[in-house]
């Protein structure tokens, strides 16, 4: 019997010749990448290299000009975003515009209720709601956010707000979590803490992240892909990337122009 939801814990995310063009401008050209289950995989590259465009092609935010996206054995290239979330691919939500006026616990309870298809919680029994609250508290504890459960999200330090975004993404029970500069705008002490929490997420969650801070990339990534001008320049382990002359040239060239 075929099922529309891939339930394998070993789902690999893969692209084949993915390209995105606006007019004559190619933001992504022929990008073929594989993200293995449990990966901690960083996408790096200079400004405008096409990293965010690539994430948008993965999530369905943009339709590719050509190429394909596979989730496990399924070609998901034409699936809408919410169908990809249902299959287990999610990116962080922008809490600043979503649930900022609610408490952290309320926000996560809403996200879990949505996943469980019980968004109209006032029709549900106390037992069903208790179950959701228990799941929400366990999730918050895993992110060391349980102490903030009753705080209004917008009153939290920015680093904690980014963690709430991650909590909301995790509430969808993703197999693949896509993080676009999770530490952007956070003081460096807080960003290290944030990445430590990210690194501690269960291995059944594959993590793909864009990050400009090379200290964080080399500390937390196990695999790195370098994009330049919309194309893959190279991919490898942190040691391989650190030793790659072409990568050094790209970054030295960039800093010379800053
Ligand atoms: N909707 C769009 N229409 C036209 N051009 C776009 C669009 N979105 C992005 N671009 C262009 O595509 C190029 C790649 O942008 P993208 O945001 O993917 O790069 P990036 O590697 O994520 O950069 P940064 O590190 O600065 O965030 C940029 O030149 C950008 O101006």
Automatic annotation (TrEMBL):
All copies of domain ABC transporter, residue ranges: 13-254
GO molecular function: ATP binding
SMART domains (UniProt xref): AAA (SM00382)
Parts of the chain that traverse the membrane: none
Keyword Transport appears in the UniProt entry: yes
CDD domains: ABC_Mj1267_LivG_branched
Keywords: ATP-binding, Cell membrane, Membrane, Nucleotide-binding, Transport
InterPro entries: AAA+_ATPase (IPR003593), ABC_AA/LPS_Transport (IPR051120), ABC_transporter-like_ATP-bd (IPR003439), BCA_ABC_TP_C (IPR032823), P-loop_NTPase (IPR027417)
Origin: domain of life: Bacteria
Protein name per the record: ABC transporter ATP-binding protein
Originating species: Herbaspirillum rhizosphaerae
């Amino acid at each position: 019997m075929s099922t529309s939801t891939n339930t394998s814990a070993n789902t690999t995310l893969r692209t084949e010749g993915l390209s995105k063009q606006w007019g004559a401008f190619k933001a992504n050209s022929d990008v073929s990448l594989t993200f293995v289950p449990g990966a901690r995989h960083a996408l790096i590259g200079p400004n405008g290299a096409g990293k965010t465009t690539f994430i948008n092609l993965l999530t369905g935010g943009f339709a590719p000009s050509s190429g394909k996206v596979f989730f496990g054995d399924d070609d998901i290239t034409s699936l809408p975003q919410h169908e990809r979330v249902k299959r287990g691919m999610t990116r962080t939500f922008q809490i600043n515009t979503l649930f900022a006026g609610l408490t952290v616990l309320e926000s996560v309870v809403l996200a879990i209720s949505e996943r469980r298809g019980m968004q109209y919680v006032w029709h549900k029994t106390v037992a069903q709601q208790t179950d959701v609250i228990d799941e929400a508290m366990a999730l918050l504890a895993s992110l060391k956010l349980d102490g903030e459960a009753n705080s209004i999200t917008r009153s939290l330090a920015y680093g904690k707000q980014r963690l709430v975004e991650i909590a909301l993404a995790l509430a969808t029970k993703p197999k693949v979590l896509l993080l676009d500069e999770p530490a952007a705008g956070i003081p460096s002490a807080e960003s290290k803490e944030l990445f430590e929490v990210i690194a501690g997420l269960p291995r059944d969650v594959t993590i793909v992240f864009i990050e400009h801070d090379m200290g964080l990339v080399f500390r937390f990534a196990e695999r790195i892909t370098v994009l330049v001008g919309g194309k893959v320049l190279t991919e490898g382990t942190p040691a391989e990337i650190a030793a790659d002359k072409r990568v050094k040239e790209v970054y030295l060239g960039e800093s010379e122009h800053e």
